[in-house]
Amino acid sequence: MIDMSPTKRKAGMICMIILAAFGFVSAIGKKSVIRSNSNDQIVKLYYRLDVYDASTGRSMKINDSLMKLTAGDLTGYQYYVPGEKVSVDENGKRQRLLGETVGSRFFFFREKGLTGNFYDPASGNKARKLPVDSMLRTKFSVQGSMFYQETNRLVSATTLPEGRIFEKYVPATRPDETYPDSICLWYDRSLNDLQYSFNTKLDSMRHAKMNKALFIFNRTKNIPRREFEFRFERAAVDQQKEIQLIKERFVKESGNL
């Protein structure tokens, strides 16, 4: 079952991404020299959800993404939040609305660290200490068990070019509409070195990273067809300047790697 409670749906909408903005880089320092190690890795994760609200009959599309950087014992995340704009009606009443611009927030921590540094460049330069466990649980975790259940039935498997694999599963049971009718999985051996996984058991079984999953919910009498897609890919380290700048700052504040 995929948990899309009203609270999580609302959180997903708040975190909707349109386009990553790079405007705040100058506030950190245009002359900063970004130093990256050849072992640094950045993974970009994408989420696409078709959500249906039975109480209102409304369908919503949620698109979101985030980045994860690993460098030695250091881990950093970059995620996106919509900006705000203030409108004034004819009576002079001010109202805050979600704008189309997107800002970035960051969370960095070290292995075995209980707290990490939270950075919100739009709100100031001072980092906030936040607990690692709660941030990982509420912001950055994907429940690995939803991608694989031993009772799921494999109905199709195809070997694709360049070390890739495709599989399609059908759940053994579907108690209600929160369970998908079918699950499609894609694997890529070229990503085996990445320090990220949706499901380590699937990776081990296929000797390849399962880097894309598509949950398909067929149309019913009252609910339209829906899809939930989760995927990740390798990102070029030297092209992700925002998260690299925050990494440099975190290293200075917490000690060298």
Describe the protein's architecture and organization.
The structure is a single chain. Helix content is 17%, strand content 42%. It has 257 residues and is α+β, with helices and mostly antiparallel strands. The protein has one domain (6-254). It has an eleven-stranded antiparallel sheet, sandwiched between helices. The radius of gyration is 20 Å and the shape is globular. Mean pLDDT is 81; it is low at 2-34.
Q: How many helices?
A: 5
Radius of gyration: 20 Å
So what's the overall shape?
globular
Oligomer: single chain
Average predicted confidence as pLDDT: 81
Which strand-content bin applies to the residues? 35-45%
Number of domains: 1
Output the structural class: alpha+beta
Terminus-to-terminus distance:
40 Å
Q: What is the strand tally? A: 11
Sequence of secondary-structure elements: HHEEEEEEHEEEHEEH
Please tag this protein with its features:
257 residues, alpha+beta, 11-stranded antiparallel β-sheet, 5 helices, 17% helix, globular, disordered N terminus
